[in-house]
Amino acid sequence: MALPEFPVDGGCSCGAVRYRLKAAPLSVYNCHCKDCQRYSGAAWSISMIVREGDFERVSGETETYDRKADSGNVIVMHFCAACHTWLWNDPPLPGIKVLRAGSLDRMDWTRPVGNIWTDSKTAWVDIDPALVNFTKGAVDRTPLFEAFTRAHQD
Ligand SMILES: [Zn+2]
Ligand SMILES: [Zn+2]
What we know:
Elements: E1 8-11, E2 18-21, E3 27-31, H1 34-40, E4 45-51, E5 55-59, E6 62-68, E7 74-80, E8 86-90, E9 96-100, E10 114-116, E11 132-133, H2 142-151
Parallel strand pairs: 3-10, 10-11
Antiparallel strand pairs: 1-2, 2-5, 3-4, 4-9, 6-7, 7-8, 8-9
The site of one zinc ion has 6 residues, from helix 1.
Family: Belongs to the Gfa family.
Keywords: Lyase, Metal-binding, Zinc
GO molecular function, one term: carbon-sulfur lyase activity
């Protein structure tokens, strides 16, 4: 699926929080960590790494939760203050945000290029070996960025 024309918009279930993404993300991948299973209610969540400067919150307020990862890093999770849709995370790395792909108005183009935390994937999920996969977290996300760029070259 080709990338859309940017900007694209997204938001929460009740409509209070709206955001705009002004340029293509750096990557899109699945996270199979236990926390993502709990928060999404599914077997994985789809993470979309974007540059902070390409992201704009247009309306609404978020409430945050400081989640302590196994690594000891604190990840600030943002939820709509009214309906509590999980919308994005601020990771400890400066300059990027991690958006939940499912909160986009249209997510057809967000085909994941990889998987992280496959060690904790649920038993019935098959990981495509042709993708960029990590058994734990991706300390260096460069391979995920490169795979996304490759997938969208003309
Ligand atoms: Zn809401
Ligand atoms: Zn996760």
